[in-house]
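# step 3/5: fold
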Amino acid sequence: QVQLVESGGGLVQAGGSLRLSCAASGLTFSMYRMGWFRQASGKDREFVTAISRGGVNTYYADSVKGRFTISRDNAKNTVDLQMNSLKPEDTAVYYCAAARQIGNTLRPDDYDYWGQGTQVTVSS
């Protein structure tokens, strides 16, 4: 029933920008904390950013602070990730995830639902 569908991935030059979007259905969107994770080839899935149910509180991995911005629109059931000043090390598959938990949500196990991922490749 629950679906999270990411879009907006692609190839971009270093220093460029990209905006990802995640559309949710089959759940009461405003009751879930939303997050983005990424997984580079051969590496574990890692936390990127998360946003609280009402969109007031945001959390970022140190590696993306000042460059990435998460936002949500509860009327549209979407969460976006604006990525600026992209670096080759940002290259990964990016996943949207939803967590019923309202405490700390830094681990993949904290999340109940996942999208299929979208590829982001940053060239040098």
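# step 4/5: annotate
The first strand starts at residue 3 and ends at 7.
# step 5/5: archive (pending)
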